[in-house]
Design goal:
Number of helices: 13
Order of helices and strands: HHHHEHHHHHHEHHH
Strand content: under 5%
Strand order of the largest sheet: 1-2
Shape: globular
Radius of gyration: 19 Å
Helix content: over 70%
Largest sheet: 2 strands, antiparallel
Length: about 290
């Protein structure tokens, strides 16, 4: 692995850290396996790139992507809580619908950002000379730390505790006067906002939005969460959020190493195979730890 690939793994790991946090919120906090993130990730990318190409300020385009991602999460929650659809089915329906929505937003299967300024060029180009190839990593790192800190504080507020209580035991939460439907909606809104933000930043990093870029997003996020939990001892909610970021970076590192070390027999098309193997190994780690220590 050369220096460029090393830096690229860190950069993409930080971007997918947003996805991992979103998946953690839905899967671990709310106990809601949300397959809709496979559509929310490209929704964020499609919205951001389409608006930038149309002449909208990149910051406003990114904010719009986050808002639409949150609305997609609300639709998933509404299907589950009001129409009584199964959680998995609600996510699948939203993911399927978002494929057409994303195509309608972009107007074609992909949109390049060549010749258009992104948020990096407008705000952080001054970092290019002193930091070299690291100039785009620093703003992403600062942003994810700020949002992780804000999320940690939010989950300790009354509303945040209500969301956590709903995910832990919805029936008990209702008996305590908590509106579990509203908490599920709010939780999925926040989770999908994080995923859409990751998609918007990813599109600006690679300079392209593509209709297929959301395939496997839930698996990527799940892999980051499981790997992070296997690496970082989880004692507080802040540890879990940090574990998501570390897991995303570690996951991208392992993927890059595996594809580079196995150039003679592994292809880029084997990415999902390597991901599945990593998730399986990560899920076995807790049991291996118990077997070793016991």
């Amino acid at each position: 692995m050369n220096t460029f690939q090393f830096i690229g793994a860190i950069e993409l790991g930080l971007v997918y850290g947003f996805v991992a946090i979103g998946v953690y919120l839905s899967l671990r906090i709310l106990d809601f396996p949300d397959l809709g993130v496979d559509g929310t990730f490209p929704l964020g990318a499609a919205t951001c790139t389409a608006l930038i190409v149309a002449g909208v300020h990149p910051l406003l385009a990114t904010i719009a992507a986050v808002i639409l991602g949150g609305l997609a999460g609300l639709v998933t929650a509404w299907l589950s809580t009001h129409l009584r659809f199964l959680n998995l089915l609600s996510g699948i329906l939203v993911m399927t619908a978002l494929y057409s929505v994303n195509l309608r937003i972009m107007g074609r299967p992909n949109i390049p950002l060549l010749g258009h300024d992104t948020a990096f060029e407008l705000f952080f180009i001054s970092l290019k000379e002193p930091l070299g190839i690291l100039w785009r990593i620093l703003p992403i790192f600062i942003l994810i730390l700020i949002l992780a800190f804000a999320l940690n504080r939010f989950l300790k507020t009354d509303i945040g505790l209500a969301i956590r209580a709903t995910g832990n035991n919805a029936r008990m939460a209702r008996s305590q006067g908590i509106g579990d439907k509203a908490m599920i909606g709010l939780g999925l809104c926040i989770a999908n906002s994080f995923v859409a933000l990751g998609g918007a930043i990813f599109a600006q990093v690679i300079g392209l939005a593509d209709i297929t870029m959301g395939v496997g997003t839930l698996i990527y996020g799940l892999a980051a969460v499981i790997i992070g939990e296997a690496i970082v001892p989880i004692k507080k909610i802040s540890h879990a959020i940090i574990a998501c970021i570390i897991g995303a970076i570690f996951y991208k590192f392992v993927i890059a190493i595996a594809l580079n070390a196995g150039q003679s027999f592994l292809l880029s098309s084997d990415l999902n195979l390597v991901t599945a193997m990593l998730v399986g190994i990560a899920m076995l780690l807790p049991n291996l730890k118990k077997a070793i220590w016991n």
